[in-house]
Amino acid sequence: MPDQAGSPETGSPDALPAAELLALDRQHVWHPYGPMPGRQEPLVVASASGVRLRLAEPSQGHGELVDGMSSWWSAIHGYNHPALNEAVTGQLGRMSHVMFGGLTHEPAVRLAAKLVELTPAGLEHVFLADSGSVSVEVAVKMCLQYWRSVGRPEKSRLLTWRGGYHGDTWQPMAVCDPEGGMHELWSGILPRQLFADAPPSGFSAPVDESYVAHLRSLFAAHRDELAAVIVEPVVQGAGGMRFHNPGYLRVLRELCDEYGVLLILDEIATGFGRTGALFAADHAGITPDVMCLGKALTGGYLTLAATLCTERVADGISQGEVPVLAHGPTFMGNPLATSVALASIDLLLGQDWQGEVKRIEAGLLEGLAPAADLPGVREVRVLGAIGVIQLDHPVDMARATAAAVREGVWLRPFRDLIYTMPPFVTADADVARICRAVMAAAKEA
Ligand SMILES: Cc1ncc(COP(=O)(O)O)c(C=O)c1O
Fold first, then answer.
1. pLDDT given at position 15
2. 339 in Cβ contact with 90 (< 8 Å)
3. 266 assigned to active site
């Protein structure tokens, strides 16, 4: 049945007709990871509320779609949330933006203090960046500059494991998996970083000592040139939606300490509860030297990311020959974004978020279990509010997306993966519906 219930408001009264808007879109607008003009027509979203995206024109009988993606994993509280709206509009009346060089303001200061309080003990300093990729650039710059500052400029290479994704700007691209990833095109031009094998799969699979030995051999062979290790903790997202035992993070922490290498955890996708812990590092009980946050930081309202570091890293940089971190985006610490981030964190911590994530996990486990018997399905995996079906062949994206829309759900499959990361406020019936859509997409793909 078409789902027309509970429609949020439509777009503005002078909104362009959808056909005209799509024609202009096709003519002028570059979409993520797309050619110009795009080959697949996007759906036009007029408004969004709760977990529903309201379409400008119905698609396959549905005027609204349940969002199974949280807008690339950021909108954990859903859309049009009164508390988040209030945070933005309240701040708008005071000041939408002011430069951060030589000036400061309460939302940014309070947010930095809050992040220090919530993240693993020992992370003390916060650099506010404007996107996840930029926060990774800053993390890498911090580590490289640290070693220069302490008189070890030869320590300038990064180690990561395969299957990772860290963003689309230059340094992040260099540590994305070079094979099968989105940045293969640039091999030979990007800085050549060091890649370990992908960590063995399975959140609960025992730690594999032969893999630990493999990691150790890379540290031992490259200790003099390694500045930092960078990994996504527990869940590798856009590089393949794979989960690993948090024990490998403890191993990395120990090896970094033993061989004099800094540890960067990229928690841009995992931060703020997605895996069932507030930060994935908490599963392992470790503190990295540098941590990146983004995506759900603002509840998906505005673009903001943060790079946190320890006293040691900050001191090293600040006592070096060039005693400053030379980075300062125009919109650094934006007051609207930092205000809504504070409100989003309050909203998250003010509820039983762990219970909600567990509830969604249970719904995904139940709803996706039958997928294991579908032809073409290699594996079904669930962790926290993340549900994944991996196929044994590449997804036919157009067919899979259309199959999900027929079920009244928005999904965005990639490679051989059909997955969901729903908002934490998704009701049980909608989780079940998302699961039906994931299964339908898997059958069509
Ligand atoms: C783990 C991880 N790091 C970095 C990024 C890049 O973040 P942004 O898209 O905000 O630049 C992403 C985005 O998907 C991510 O998942």
1. 83
2. yes
3. yes
